[in-house]
Design a protein that fits this description.
Layout: E1 13-16, H1 22-33, E2 37-42, H2 45-56, E3 64-68, H3 74-87, E4 93-96, H4 111-139, E5 142-147, H5 160-180, E6 185-192, H6 201-205, H7 207-216, H8 229-235, E7 247-250
Parallel strand pairs: 1-2, 1-4, 2-3, 4-5, 5-6, 6-7
The structure holds NADPH dihydro-nicotinamide-adenine-dinucleotide phosphate.
């Protein structure tokens, strides 16, 4: 089997935030299968070690490391990125994936939940992105992929704060592209549709909602975490060297139809 050189990312080092499970873990697995050295991140060291062992056992061509830090805390992020670069090597690829969902009508949404979701979904990308980009811009190359959402574009009742964080993350992506592009760093977003993970477990189990997702999606099904891998590998590859500030929606067509 031959791979076009434009898609070859073997030998690169990639950090995926929030990769102890779900989408982040699938993206980390994909990057490792493409020959990257991968760093898994999350707050629960035990869970991360287990995830890394699972990946390591899967006969991957790249190596797997872990880095336990909270992406919402500036000091932990600074120490975490410095530690990763020292232990593993210079970061070529960053995937800002860590995130959370809180569903409640806006009138019932508390101040503390507002700050929590903003910190986890938006501030985290700024903090981790800034630390990584300090080093990438100095070296003159790097790829950053921010995991946005179809809710960067559209919203439903009960998820306004989540959509606000993801809409802002899309604009942060464009701003990072503007600031860091001149130094060889490309920054793009990937916007998943409805994907079956722990985060959406309650929705998957709600038969009425689940059926609505299937009807509403041209592809006729929920997304799987593996559906997102190709888009991230592409955005992290030399094939995307002249693509920056864009969001690639991987949603079975959902954001395109009424
Ligand atoms: P999960 O809840 O399954 O996983 C979230 C991951 O983020 C976990 O590994 C968790 O690890 C980590 N995490 C959460 N908070 C922090 C923190 N403060 N510091 C470090 N790590 C953290 O979510 P998904 O895999 O479903 O979602 C991943 C991303 O994709 C999110 O940004 C989400 O918004 C986005 N997305 C998901 C969609 C879906 O349908 N599932 C659709 C569109 C976008 P730990 O708790 O151990 O720290």
């Amino acid at each position: 089997m031959t791979t076009h050189p434009l898609f070859d990312i073997s030998g690169r080092t990639a950090l995926v935030t929030g990769s102890s499970r779900g989408i982040g873990l699938a993206l980390a697995r994909g990057l490792a299968q493409a020959g990257c050295t991968v760093v898994l991140n999350g707050r629960d060291g035990e869970r991360l070690t287990k995830a890394a062992a699972e990946l390591g056992a899967a006969e991957l061509s790249g190596n797997v490391h872990t880095a336990v830090f909270d992406v919402t805390d500036g000091a932990s992020v600074a120490a975490g990125i410095a530690d990763v670069e020292e232990r593993v090597g210079p970061l070529d690829i960053l995937v800002n994936n860590a995130g959370m969902q809180l569903r409640a009508p806006l009138l019932e949404f508390t101040d503390s939940d507002w700050h929590r979701i903003l910190d986890t979904n938006l501030t985290s990308a700024f903090l981790v992105g800034r630390e990584a980009a300090r080093r990438m811009t100095e070296r003159g190359h790097g790829k950053i992929v921010n995991i946005c959402s179809l809710q960067s574009e559209v919203v439903r009742p009960g998820i306004a704060p989540y959509a606000a964080t993801k809409g802002a993350l899309k604009m942060l992506t464009k701003g990072m592209c503007a600031d860091w592009g001149p130094y060889g760093v490309q920054v793009n977003g990937l916007g998943p549709g409805y994907i079956e993970t722990e985060l959406t477990q309650a929705l998957v189990q709600d038969e009425e909602f689940s059926a609505w997702v299937r009807r509403r999606t041209p592809a006729g099904r929920w997304g799987r975490t593996e559906d997102l891998v190709g888009g991230v590998l592409f955005l992290a590859s030399p094939a995307a060297d002249f693509i920056s500030g864009q969001v690639l929606y991987v949603d079975g067509g959902m954001t395109s139809v009424l």
